[in-house]
Amino acid sequence: MTAKNAFYAQSGGVTAVINASACGVIETARRHPEKIANVYAGRNGIIGALTEDLIDTSKESEADIAALRQTPSGGFGSCRYKLKSLEANKREYERLIEVFKAHDIGYFFYNGGGDSADTCYKISQLSESMGFPIQAVHVPKTVDNDLPITDNCPGFGSVAKYIATSTLEASFDVRSMCATSTKIFVIEVMGRHAGWIAAAGALVADQGIPVLTLFPEVEFDQEKFLAAVKAKVEQFGYCTVCVSEGCHYPDGRFLAEQGTRDAFGHAQLGGAAPVVANMIKEALGYKFHWAVADYLQRAARHLASKSDVDQAYALGKAAVELAVAGHNSIMPTVVRKSSSPYVWEIGHAPLSQVANVEKFMPKDFISDDGFGITDKCREYLYPLIQGEDYPPFENGLPKYVTLKLAGVPKKLSGAFEL
Amino acid sequence: MTAKNAFYAQSGGVTAVINASACGVIETARRHPEKIANVYAGRNGIIGALTEDLIDTSKESEADIAALRQTPSGGFGSCRYKLKSLEANKREYERLIEVFKAHDIGYFFYNGGGDSADTCYKISQLSESMGFPIQAVHVPKTVDNDLPITDNCPGFGSVAKYIATSTLEASFDVRSMCATSTKIFVIEVMGRHAGWIAAAGALVADQGIPVLTLFPEVEFDQEKFLAAVKAKVEQFGYCTVCVSEGCHYPDGRFLAEQGTRDAFGHAQLGGAAPVVANMIKEALGYKFHWAVADYLQRAARHLASKSDVDQAYALGKAAVELAVAGHNSIMPTVVRKSSSPYVWEIGHAPLSQVANVEKFMPKDFISDDGFGITDKCREYLYPLIQGEDYPPFENGLPKYVTLKLAGVPKKLSGAFEL
């Protein structure tokens, strides 16, 4: 059997550690020249495959590929572009096969979240559905931590560490000032449907911080919330609020909806923090400050969790090893063996069980009052934020790599209209 | 001469390194028992002096005082409370003298920014104006970096490092996604009147990031700004905007004014980022994300600048040494001897030259188009963000100290109405 080329693409919102998975994929592929000739990366994700805009990763030095492990964002570019079903847009699949054939691609590594797992699953069916032999392996990634089966998703642990640390630091700040000044600090965090990131903010309660968390899983009850804020301020002198962007009223309206939608049709959120802060000010008169972390949280490689970086790399490595061993339609997973001490290993799951399944926070992870987390949740979260993995610094700033991104010469004539 | 007690207080907005100055003051005072018997800290700043609510720092262990160096926020509590002039509120000064006499206080160390330097100056005049002998030394602190004479102010270097790093990381994120998604990232930073912090965001241009900076020193010109954004997006595919909370229209209106004012009568700002982002969306149609760093930036001890931590400590130490040497009405300063390599030493300035003088960015630090910084500004900024000084971590989170804060028994009868 002669070696085939591999296609690798980053998909959806990027993270502090998705490049660590890319590093794991490429370094491992380079150790299997008998099976994998070269790794072509899609420029800007799957769009690079559709438009035959491929990046030749063999042109990147070993040092630059290694530096991906320490660089946030998507080194090859990502995109929000979801393939329709085979019935709805057969043209896209025919095009992919045309490009894969032209570049002798036999492996498809897709690094993304739930929507991308669905795309990867469809690709994995091409052998059967369209007679094109390809092995598709999904590399999990999402700060939302909402993929099923895997214990957690790379990207989440680092956001969790960043949000817990930032919430702790800002709470110390407010605590210093609350006697005469700011009494309320509101931090808004990501998480459309699942409150995993917000739960990380709730960890600071373990350090004596009066924190209230607003989860997307709990319908917002303004009266109950304001009473809880008042009680915290009366007891501690101040209160920190960690609000998920997905926090919503019983009728489904987000606290923060801006009215715009992204390419997947999801509402584009942002702005729950000022809404909550002003609501408190109006009802209780407390002086407030608020922050919206937005991309800072998912890009904060400077404070990545070592567990997270190690797992992101290990999952990229495992994806290639699964492919080389002949697997298709599969996703490597993190399997937790023990929380304390934290022991994990790599497992795998069939994509049919992953695609289009969204994992929510278990109900018993949220405290009875709806504003905090349970010990079970703590036990789950702490291992994921363990360890620091600082990037190198140069001249006061992190030294992140920007790749050469040399294109692979096109072999097909004509352009493809997205 | 018998030893006197010292009073130490933190004033105004706290920073990632003000506790490092406290550490410098207390550790140095403990080495001069012949002059300084004990350091009493004001609980919540000068209010602790007025209300005779003093903290006995001798009850804190050496390890906890040392841990202050690595802990953000104000360990003794701070406040926004500006003493009026002697003529306007003689009662406050009489009360201070009453408390200082009761607790045998002969040294006054005040750790704050411009308003606090003015208070410290007034205290330093009490010998002359009210016949009470006291030595007052100001320990500079302000993320706004707007104190005169000193090369820079502790707190600023760490915010600058945090903002430059965060802007870099988020820009990498947007760069990954811009082909099909977000093209504009707006980060809002602190700085009411001076654009020092915004200038730190502009440093990422040196890493190839298309960044536009909006300074308080430059009147906002919407048309010119939108044209600049369009040009960046057309050239690079995306654009980062670093907007100061103090950015304002020619008529003085802030982009972000919320209509509330703090205890000093300053407008409370926040929300320039969404204003700018929506303005771009409306005019140019680009998808955006925005972040408001708010307290996260000034509390981010996890990413403190080593230069900044070292200087904060050195200034606290120098304040005590100046007092012990008999000085009054003085502020230790940072004197820059060389930018490359960075060499600095501690100097000092009379408070009469510091109080009520605000240092703005020099005009030649801002580029001709008003959206960036000059090489002169770069040369100034880079030394201040040099070096990392990570706090210890425990169980995934920074290990910050919370002091015991044991009170000093009151000696006066009756309360003081603020």
Model description:
- Two copies of one chain form a homodimer.
- With about 425 residues, chain A is of the alpha/beta class.
- Chain A has helices at about 20-30, 45-50, 60-70, 90-100, 115-125, 125-130, 155-175, 195-200, 220-235, 270-285, 295-300, 305-325, 375-385; strands spanning about 5-10, 35-40, 55, 105-110, 135-140, 185-190, 210-215, 240-245, 290, 330-340, 345-350, 395, 395-400.
- In chain A, the strands form four sheets. Chain A has a five-stranded mixed beta sheet, with helices on both faces. A four-stranded parallel beta sheet of chain A has the order 7-8-6-9, sandwiched between helices.
- In chain A, strand 7 (about 210-215), helix 9 and strand 8 (about 240-245) form a beta-alpha-beta unit.
- The radius of gyration of chain A is 22 Å and the shape is elongated.
- In chain A, about 60% of the residues are buried.
- At the A-B interface, helix 7, helix 10, strand 9, helix 11 and strand 13 of A face helix 7, helix 10, strand 9, helix 11 and strand 13 of B.
Secondary structure class of chain A reads alpha/beta
Poorly predicted tracts of residues of chain A:
none
Helical residues, percent of chain A: 25-40%
DSSP strand content of chain A: 15-25%
Tally of individual helices of chain A: 13
Global morphology of chain A: elongated
Task: Please describe the biggest sheet of chain A, giving its number of strands, its sense, and whether it closes into a barrel.
Answer: 5 strands, mixed
The neighbouring-strand order within the major sheet of chain A is 3-2-1-4-5
| Biggest interface between chains | A-B, 78 and 78 residues
- Work out the oligomeric state of the chains in this entry: homodimer
Topology order of chain A in helix (H) and strand (E) letters = EHEHEHHEHHEHEHEHEHEHHEEHEE
Radius of gyration of chain A: 22 Å
Number of DSSP E strands of chain A: 13
Mean pLDDT of chain A: 95
Distance between the termini of chain A: 35 Å
